[in-house]
Amino acid sequence: MKILFAASEAVPFAASGGLADVTGSLPKALTAKGHDCRVVIPLYSSIRPELRAKMEFIKNITVDVSWRKQYCGIFKAVLNGITYYFIDNEYYYSREGMYGFYDDCERFVFFDRAVLEMLKYVGFTPEIIHCNDWQTALIPVYYSVYYKYQQGYDGIKNVFTIHNIEYQGKYGKEVLSELMSIPMYNAGLLDYDGYVNMLKGAIETADKITTVSPSYAWEILDPWYAHGLDRILVTKQYKLRGILNGIDTELYDPSKDPEITKNFSARNVSGKAECKRTLLEELNLDPGNEPVIGIVTRFVRHKGIDLIRCVFEEMIQMGFKFAVLGSGEKIYEDFFSEMAARYPGKVSVSLGFIPELSHRIYAGSDMFLMPSLSEPCGLAQMISMRYGTIPIVRETGGLRDTVRDNGGIDGNGFTFKTINANDMLDAVKRAFRDYNDKKVWDALVKRAMKCDFSWSASADDYIDLYEELLQDDLLEADA
Ligand code: GLC
């Protein structure tokens, strides 16, 4: 099958969160299963020079953004057997950072149109275009409004994955004509609650909608999780499916990882103790055997940091040490910085997005705390389990689908249900108790490390989904 992945970020070129991990690893898994899977992202100026050097210029074209004709360079690079395309326009993408600009809507309207235009020139016609999150949400919309009638485009199927329903691309109605060139008779595709909502457009027009875990697929039918989109999703339920993300098991492999002090595996976990010792040293935390809780996250509300704030000092009193890495809202950055200042040797906070350090925290911590209010999938809990670090999570979305409480027979972590700091603290206490029983803990660590979070099974689920779509067409043609 020929599949094109469109996204605003992909490892190793540009990454700010889990989306980039998925667009960096799922295409690899699909390619390994014999499919021709390619990826297209914007050519950000932040892409590292050594990766930039691998790119080859294909052509430049112009792309319509309403009445404007904008320059669009098309570049290509092949990395580990996968072809990546890049959409170049320095005015849009040569900036510090990837998002958060006054003209984000325009930047991604341009990208979405450019992706469809590009197909005329790159000698690759996909059977499936797989789009991800609001930045690529206009691709299925443009396809259904303009492109499906054009030569060379017929029969392409659009799959749209929601990685996080909170980010929707909501703008005033003027963008329809000023940026998007969507005719008034098609305005209904994007219109929602008086706004233009890009995600809603994709929900309307994509052939299938997926979310990144089975639980999140039914959670977002509920107003509490859906950030307003439950009404439209309920009507489009027939094309909604949840497929659990995998992780890149080569990048996150404790037996080979070059970023950590000593490699280890489920069969021989001894190196983990050395990873813990050197992590404590690196972060200026007190040496000793007390349990270390790792937190690697974006500091935003839905990650449940308010629950951590409520009982943080109680956890310190119990004897925990904390290795925190992340960045985001100032209120949370300030909270962790204040805790680090108040409890030197017990709390370390590193502000930023530092992949190498994250590997050392995954490897050197004993537990990993992730009390998200909502979590479409979550990758960190799976990565930490692979490094024998036991997750403590709230039962929501992908956390619910990957972590089982150690109270049962095949537990691989600790879970709690409600959005309540004391409920979370109870799970933390149970983790503390089991940590102090070496036999119980060693068995738990082994079980967690043996869980299979590779893409293999989920890549098959995506292949089934793509095949179903292509099959539908054959059935229609027969009829
Ligand atoms: C988003 C979600 C996260 C998910 C990731 C990759 O970042 O918040 O839960 O794991 O996308 O799909």
Overall geometry comes to globular
CATH H-level homologous superfamily name of the largest domain: Glycogen Phosphorylase B
Question: Tell me, what is the CATH class of the largest domain?
Answer: Alpha Beta
Overall average residue pLDDT? 96
Helix content: 25-40%
What's the story with the biggest beta sheet? Answer: 9 strands, mixed
- Summed up, the helix count is 19
| Spatial gap, N to C terminus | 23 Å
Number of domains: 2
Strand coverage percent? 15-25%
* Total strands: 18
Note down, in words, how this protein is organized:
- This protein has 479 residues and is of the alpha/beta class.
- It folds into 2 domains: 2-246 and 456-478, Glycogen Phosphorylase B (Rossmann fold), CATH 3.40.50; 271-452, Rossmann fold (3-Layer(aba) Sandwich).
- It is 40% helix and 21% strand.
- The chain is built from 19 helices and 18 strands.
- The chain has helices at residues 18-32, 49-52, 90-93, 104-118, 138-147, 175-180, 198-205, 214-219, 223-226, 230-235, 271-282, 305-318, 330-342, 355-364, 380-386, 397-402, 421-435, 438-450, 456-478, and strands at residues 2-6, 36-42, 56-65, 68-79, 82-88, 128-132, 157-162, 170-171, 191-192, 195-197, 208-211, 240-242, 292-299, 321-328, 347-351, 367-370, 390-394, 414-416.
- The strands form 3 sheets. Strands 3-4-5-2-1-6-7-11-12 form a 9-stranded mixed β-sheet, with helices on both faces. Strands 15-14-13-16-17-18 form a 6-stranded parallel β-sheet, sandwiched between helices. Strands 8-10-9 form a 3-stranded antiparallel β-sheet.
- Helix 5 packs across helix 7 (198-205) and helix 12 (305-318) crosses helix 17 (421-435).
- Bound molecules: alpha-D-glucopyranose.
- The site of alpha-D-glucopyranose has 14 residues, from helix 1.
